[in-house]
What we know:
The structure is a homotetramer of 317-residue chains. Chain A has nine helices and nine strands. Chain A has 317 residues and is α+β, with helices and mostly antiparallel strands. A four-stranded antiparallel beta sheet of chain A has the order 1-2-6-5, with no helix packed on it. Chain A has a three-stranded antiparallel beta sheet with strand order 3-4-7. A two-stranded antiparallel ribbon of chain A has the order 8-9. The C terminus of chain A is likely disordered. The interface between C and D is large, with 65 and 64 residues.
Amino acid sequence: xxxxxxxSDPSLFETRATRDGDEWVIEGWKFFTSNARTAAFLIVxxxxxxxxxxxxxxxxxxxxxxxxGVRIVRNIGLMGERVPGSGSHALIHYDQVRVPAESLxxxxxxxxxxxxxxxxxxxxxHAMRTVGMASKSLDMLCERAVSRRTRDGxxxxxxxxxxxxxxxxxxxxxxxxxxxxxxxxIDQGHxxxxxxxxxxxxxxxxxxxxxxxxxxAIQVHGALGVSDEMPLGGLWMTAPVMGLxxxxxxxxxxxxxxxVLKGYTPVEGLWPSQHxxxxxxxxRAKYAAHPDALGSAAVGWSAEDLxxxxxxxxxxx
Amino acid sequence: xxxxxxxSDPSLFETRATRDGDEWVIEGWKFFTSNARTAAFLIVxxxxxxxxxxxxxxxxxxxxxxxxGVRIVRNIGLMGERVPGSGSHALIHYDQVRVPAESLxxxxxxxxxxxxxxxxxxxxxHAMRTVGMASKSLDMLCERAVSRRTRDGxxxxxxxxxxxxxxxxxxxxxxxxxxxxxxxxIDQGHxxxxxxxxxxxxxxxxxxxxxxxxxxAIQVHGALGVSDEMPLGGLWMTAPVMGLxxxxxxxxxxxxxxxVLKGYTPVEGLWPSQHxxxxxxxxRAKYAAHPDALGSAAVGWSAEDLxxxxxxxxxxx
Amino acid sequence: xxxxxxxSDPSLFETRATRDGDEWVIEGWKFFTSNARTAAFLIVxxxxxxxxxxxxxxxxxxxxxxxxGVRIVRNIGLMGERVPGSGSHALIHYDQVRVPAESLxxxxxxxxxxxxxxxxxxxxxHAMRTVGMASKSLDMLCERAVSRRTRDGxxxxxxxxxxxxxxxxxxxxxxxxxxxxxxxxIDQGHxxxxxxxxxxxxxxxxxxxxxxxxxxAIQVHGALGVSDEMPLGGLWMTAPVMGLxxxxxxxxxxxxxxxVLKGYTPVEGLWPSQHxxxxxxxxRAKYAAHPDALGSAAVGWSAEDLxxxxxxxxxxx
Amino acid sequence: xxxxxxxSDPSLFETRATRDGDEWVIEGWKFFTSNARTAAFLIVxxxxxxxxxxxxxxxxxxxxxxxxGVRIVRNIGLMGERVPGSGSHALIHYDQVRVPAESLxxxxxxxxxxxxxxxxxxxxxHAMRTVGMASKSLDMLCERAVSRRTRDGxxxxxxxxxxxxxxxxxxxxxxxxxxxxxxxxIDQGHxxxxxxxxxxxxxxxxxxxxxxxxxxAIQVHGALGVSDEMPLGGLWMTAPVMGLxxxxxxxxxxxxxxxVLKGYTPVEGLWPSQHxxxxxxxxRAKYAAHPDALGSAAVGWSAEDLxxxxxxxxxxx
Lengths: 317, 317, 317, 317
């Protein structure tokens, strides 16, 4: 899906597939194709109808890796992958690649819908895996804290280490509950827009939770924490990946905001609905019209008292 | 309960109550007694048995405010309360205050138990109120965002405002779920230690959630946000109060950590249980002893392959 | 300057001043006019030429407060100001207010230039005052830390309090150095654009430094810290004001970025200039062309060795 | 220096050197010995006098790597180093290693002094290198921002990217000024304790500045940022190293706090020196004793007015 000039934004994709008799001819570049180096076939998203927008104009194709014209230009690694040049994410040139008509996956123009269907679940899946990875970091952090001695006693006795433990537990527990909640909403068939908002929300949290807890775990492991002898280095390098895979954090944060803001209507006039001068005036007007509304004799308060009291509250904000 | 020299730490309390015939004689200072200025009676926590620790040596007394010897030295306000000298939290000197024996609340030495019983629920209560207060801030933030126009259009169209909305929604939703979860655990009669851990956890979050969301709401209101014409100022001043009431954040954070760390046992020897060289060696040993364990013929993998593969994974951390 | 519908954005100002014989007639609303309640005269920024942009179309006028048509609609307080209705920042209606021609300050259309001249210095001034206010918070924090005893000894012995002290000292020292540096650049007559960038930078830091240090100082003071008996409450309420006065933080952050980004030119082609495959290829090409450039015999390295070494460095990133 | 059980805390070091005729016999384990794999000699810090504290009881030795008894047990890599088992930081067992008497570096018992001398400069050196590395990250961030196009235009036009740029510039500029200031203080021969405090301060900042700016640069590079084709991955893995090398952040933060707190003396009595009730009482007392002190006739203010005014200020905090 991803292209070098367009990242994960489909509206910038340039790879084209053109119908030629019983075949499709694919031409273009794809970037960060996972596991291409060892794959028997590739799935390619290409524009088949440039006249309409990308949400309806792209199609998906199944392309055997050994099809003539498929060229892996570089096998790019994620940071920390061992051997340069043999990484797991390929830059591929599709140079007039011909596949038979039945290589089309789903219908023509269906690529975006297919991808979106997978992406929602994929994001929840990344969040769930992150619950696991972050738990592993927390476990390492805690085991180290109760095992490692300094001149003043166990690390577990130091307040900064305790803060690391507490903050990590709190962050992870909140995240876990939110992920479970989203999964439950999906199962219940809740309002798809609310579900999309909340999937975007856990996607925003995913890299941050993994990052923060792993950072603290590394710190209490000292030199060992930054070595290649603990799984912490791998988790540390995974955290920023989680902020980009299936869309960057900035895009998901904006999605959340847009959905939340849809629930609000603009106020009329210059002042907010909670503007205190307006609320005091409204209260005065209300009790002036119904002086006996609250049985002032019984409670010993007149309507004027009530208005004054509200005004006092306003005074104290 | 609070004393000027001891804050909320009962082990530093100095107010004494001594039995004298049918009466108790109370002597000492109390600080931040809520609503003393308008109260008909006061509840006083005093040491009745200095021989034992505070958890068993303090008792609670009901003291009518007009008892001779009760002197409100200053009516202290919270920041932002309007009239200096007439605040809602008194500094009180109990100068040889005599109350009848039946003023004792609960049994002798029961003060700590009574207070703790209330405090757990009280902390959940503060958390729940904070869900409400922070929701109110979020509502003001969003209403403003969709109502206020700048030269480039609505505030709701600006990415930094959207970030404020998204981050606030995410923070509040997580917090709300955690508070609900804790309340549910209490209702279900879950393990009291786990419940105490999680009450402390939401107590740590409470001031932070209110603070962060209110800060963003103030910022999008501009001058109006820092004026006394919006409820935002009051919420802003309440946020740090939430970090101190019923115990400071630092104490609760430590409580969380202590409970979490109880679930871990120290590792034997120098290296963590997840130390990769040890895990590789263990895998090698395991598969060396059972060369055909996985039906290597069928899957095409020898035991040596498996060990190499694990080592490779280790290599990639 | 500020207007209720436009905040501090001059392009949205609506107050007009129209020439009528020897007089100017001012019509419009102004918001958050400091100290209007006790001022003998007001300075009003009004559109005098709506045909040109605001930077050239606004003028400043000196208006005696008792001029007919000047009406203070509300005396708005900052949060925490004591008496509602008698705050220090007025909402004023200028209803056909007539002033003589000589009330014009500077020339016609000069308002923006005059305001900008003051604002640069004003922002540095706020930053310098904040150095003082934050120092005061740090002093209170440290005095409390070395004075207050808990059951485990002085607060100064607790790691979380020490972290508060260290982080506050570090934050304040950095900020102080930056403010001094900016003042020095102004004195030296450095490039005005660089100076504007750095004035905006310290303006962004100002509310944050005051906020963070004051928050920590409040926390170690316990109940006293949130009471009205310490200057901390006032500083706490001043922090968000500093994020809005003379322009909101968001605007200044954008100014900084725009100036910084002006120093960069786009790279040609798809890949960044630091893209490692390109750098390796360039090194290979260079040393292939000059195989003996580095006296490989003497140092024992061939050009091929050098390229391999660079590639290795690239491998290790 | 570092030992596996003791990290960087010399008081926990166990490696011993015992005099035997004209030789020293070294026995013990050392961890994270940089570049041991390719070194001709090793520098070993060992306890020579266990009767005194480590600051006077350790000595330094120069040990040829091929001395019998020197065994590199594992060549540990930093995270991301390419080939497992050939890393740059060795775990070494010194098994009855004999070196001649003249292998002693400096005098007996001088190891700590020698190490400290180097470490101060070493920490400033790491800070300076970090100014360079973080600048490189900022350059990559900015170049990408002005080069990469999305459907809405350049990344440089997006507010979140601008925030990344501005925050990075501000953080780096402050850090650079602080590092320069510390270097200048060293050159000027300022008070060594103040210098140590400030060296610790920039050591605390070092990993954070590198981390924050690199994180933002990675994010705007998308997939490329987490690949092994940019120098960003290497910088990302260096950031946590900077939080541990030459002592963990927690230790340096405590050093800063201890030095800062030495400048403060405890207040007498229960209330802070800035306690407002006390300040008001003091002002009243002062002006009561000198009713004409300020020439009240001339300025129109009586002593009573002044006390009231101060009280009012107190009222407004």
